[in-house]
Amino acid sequence: MKIYLHQPVDIQNDRFPHWWSKTYNSLAIPHKGDYIEDPIWKEPGEFVVEDVTINYYDDSCYVQIAKYNYVIPQSRKDEMSHIAELHGWEASFRKKI
User: Fold this and answer.
1) How many CB atoms lie within 10 A of CB 5?
2) Does a structural domain hold residue 96?
3) Based on the structure, what is the number of domains in the chain?
4) pLDDT of amino acid 46
5) Does the residue 81 lie in any domain?
6) For residue range 23-48, what is the model confidence (pLDDT) as tens digits?
7) How many other C-beta atoms are found inside a 10 Å radius of the C-beta of residue 20?
8) Residue 97 domain-assigned?
9) Quick one: 9 exposed, middle or buried, by C-beta within 10 A (0-12, 13-18, 19+)?
10) pLDDT for the residue numbered 24
11) What CA–CA distance (Å, rounded) separates 20 from 60?
12) Contacts 24+ apart (CB under 8 A), 70-74
C-alpha cells in the first residue's frame, strides 16, 4: 500500500499553512496513536499519528502526523527544506526556481 505521511510545519512570521510530506510503500498501515520514527527528526525522534484515512480504491493511506515541534526561522527555511529533501521528504515551502 502507498503511504502518504503529512506533517504541519510552522515558519516564523508566516501565517500560511506549511508542511512536509513523504511517500513510501508498506504493508504496515499506521493507526491513530502510533508513533512514526524518521531520521528527519532529531529530538524527539518520533511523532504521533493523529489521523489516518485509507483509500482502498487506489490502495493508499493518508497519515497526518502531529505538528513539528519547532518554529522554523525565515532565515533557515531553505536550509530546512533541503534537509527534508535529503531525508526523502518534500517541503511545501521549498523555493521553486
Assistant:
1) 22
2) no
3) 1
4) 85
5) yes
6) 999 999 999 999 999 888 877 778 99
7) 24
8) no
9) buried
10) 92
11) 18
12) 70/10, 71/10, 71/11, 71/12, 72/9, 72/10, 72/11, 72/12, 73/12, 74/11, 74/12, 74/13, 74/14
pLDDT digits (tens, 9 = 90+) for 49-67: 999 999 999 999 999 999 9
CA gap 85, 83 in Å, rounded: 5
Distance CA 69, CA 2 (A): 26
Report whether pLDDT(95) > 90: no
Has residue 8 been placed in a domain?
Answer: yes
Distances (CA, A) of 51 to 11, 46, 94: 22, 15, 25
Grid cell listed for 22 = 513523504
Residue whose entry in the numeric block shows the C-alpha cell 487506489: 58
Burial tier of 28 (Cβ tally within 10 Å: 0-12, 13-18, 19+): exposed
Grid cell, residue 8, equals 504541519
With beta carbons less than 8 A apart as the criterion, state whether 68 and 50 touch.
no
Question: pTM for this one?
Answer: 0.86
Which residue range(s) make up the domain with 42?
Answer: 2-91
